[in-house]
Design a protein that fits this description.
The protein is an alpha/beta fold. The protein contains 14 helices and 14 strands. Helix 12 links the parallel strand 10 and strand 11. This is OLC1v1038522C1. It is found in: Plastid, Chloroplast. Keywords: Chloroplast, Hydrolase, Lipid degradation, Lipid metabolism, Plastid, Transit peptide. It comes from Oldenlandia corymbosa var. corymbosa.
Length: about 450
């Protein structure tokens, strides 16, 4: 028996040619759309760039040395999600800070010659973003490259920022502080990714059909995992000046595994939105490439769907742990494609979603007699390259449960700050939000000075 989970806001596969073709009279409309997106994105992160990390001063973790494996998902977070364990909450928020660094360091100024690069050197990044005392050192910058091309007939009629192919997308950081290593119980390696920021990255997001993994990412067994085409392109594409994100990550991880082979080590990959999808691909690639890799964990915020059921099964087989933080009011987490849920006793279903806070029955629609499809229809549906699978354990939250958020718009529901606010105030399914929230949202309009978040 299986059911079909329909997507909200599902988009058709698209390329930049599909978007921009037509008469030249349509070009200003396309450019205006990109410009509007760019302006909204800059406004959204202006406040983020200027916000002090003091807002996290009240979220300091206790010692994790005796519990870190559980917080990293060694037991699939059993008993930690509902109610939400405080140590796990603090770890989720801590990794959310690393994603915020990826946003703050990115140059969003399209008029700047350094647009889409990192604003700071590796040695300055953590200190400039308020994490200089966390004990982490940035060891490598990471770039993602788009494979879509601006059509030749467009010529020089579009600004340079639209055709920007490679951009800074995140970084690798290593915990080097002895006291922090002792507190965590191991040396932690963090890979952090920002969300979509450039015009061509938006176009890659729209390439929503599934594609087979390349040979160097395919498993040895006779199976064919498939992932979203645009995400795979961003992960594997390169230019003459920038290596692919895949090559950069694997080279850095190989170096770190060799350097710290004689001590406890963890690899935590975190990201928001597009960064969440790249984090999942990165985790798959690391565990598939390095057979003796340490525990690899993904902590993702507001991520879209990434791959099909075979891809999920390979992740589970390789021991990759994925914790997806989902806002049930965030449409991005419900695209692309649709999901077929198999309601049987398959052993591969150990990674079923855990829905806490709000149960969205409308997401699961049973179809056909007894909720089942004939096998030939099932096969036809899967052949459309639009059938995705939900991956990992899910911590489901809802903006509607938070009085400070109310009925947020699409941008607010997807914003990283919203996610961190919900995690910080979530208790459990019986009591979704703390009776007395110890934090208020940052002023998103950025028209008055930042309010310092209050802890009570």
């Amino acid at each position: 028996m299986f059911s079909v989970r329909l997507a909200i806001g599902m988009v058709k596969p698209c390329t930049i040619n599909n978007i921009m073709k037509g008469s030249m009279q349509q070009l200003p409309t396309a450019l205006e759309s990109c410009q509007t997106t760019k302006v909204n994105m800059k406004a959204s992160f202006n406040a983020l760039k200027n916000t002090s990390m003091e807002c996290f001063d009240g979220i300091q973790c206790g010692k994790l040395r005796d519990k870190w494996l559980e917080c990293q998902g060694i037991k699939n977070w059993e008993g930690l999600l509902d109610p939400l364990d405080d140590d796990l909450r603090n770890e989720i928020l801590r990794y959310g800070q690393f994603v915020e660094v990826a946003y703050r360091c990115f140059d969003f100024d399209t008029s700047s010659p350094t647009y889409a690069t990192c604003n700071y050197s590796k040695d300055q990044m953590m200190a400039e973003c308020g994490l200089g005392t966390t004990g982490y050192r940035v060891s490598r910058n990471l770039h993602a490259t788009c494979s879509v091309q601006v059509p030749r007939w467009v010529g020089g009629k579009v600004p340079n920022w639209i055709s920007k192919k490679s951009s800074w997308v995140g970084y690798v950081a290593v915990c080097d502080d002895k006291e922090e290593i002792a507190r965590l119980g191991r040396r932690d390696v963090v890979i952090a990714y920002r969300g979509t920021a450039t015009c061509l990255e938006w176009f890659e997001n729209l390439r929503a059909t599934l594609a087979c993994l390349p040979d160097d990412m395919a498993p040895a067994e006779d199976c064919h995992p498939m992932v979203q085409s645009g995400f795979l392109s961003l992960y594997t594409s390169s230019t003459e000046t920038h290596r692919s994100l895949q090559d950069s990550v694997k080279e850095e991880i190989e170096k770190l595994l060799e350097k710290y082979s004689d001590e406890p080590l963890s690899i935590t990959i975190t990201g928001h939105s597009l960064g969440a999808a790249l984090a999942t691909l990165t985790a798959y690639d690391i565990t598939n490439t390095f057979k003796h890799a340490p525990l690899v964990t993904v902590v993702s915020f507001g991520g879209p769907r990434v791959g099909d059921r075979t891809f999920r099964q390979q992740l589970e087989k390789n021991g990759t742990k994925v914790l997806r933080i989902v806002n049930s009011d965030d449409v991005i987490t419900k695209v692309p494609g649709f999901v077929i849920d198999y309601n049987n006793n398959n052993n591969n279903n150990n990674n079923n979603n855990i829905e806490v806070a709000r149960n969205e029955e409308a997401d699961d629609v049973e179809v056909g007699p007894a909720g089942g499809f004939p096998s030939w229809i099932q096969k036809r549906v899967e052949d459309t390259q639009w059938v995705y699978a939900e991956i990992g354990k899910e911590l489901r939250l809802s903006s509607k449960d938070c009085p400070n958020l109310g009925k947020g718009d699409i941008v607010t529901c997807h914003d990283l700050k919203t996610y961190l606010h919900l995690v910080n105030n979530f208790v459990g399914s019986n009591c979704p939000i703390r009776a007395t929230a110890n934090r208020v949202l940052m002023n998103r309009k950025n028209v008055v000075e930042e309010k310092q978040l209050l802890f009570r």
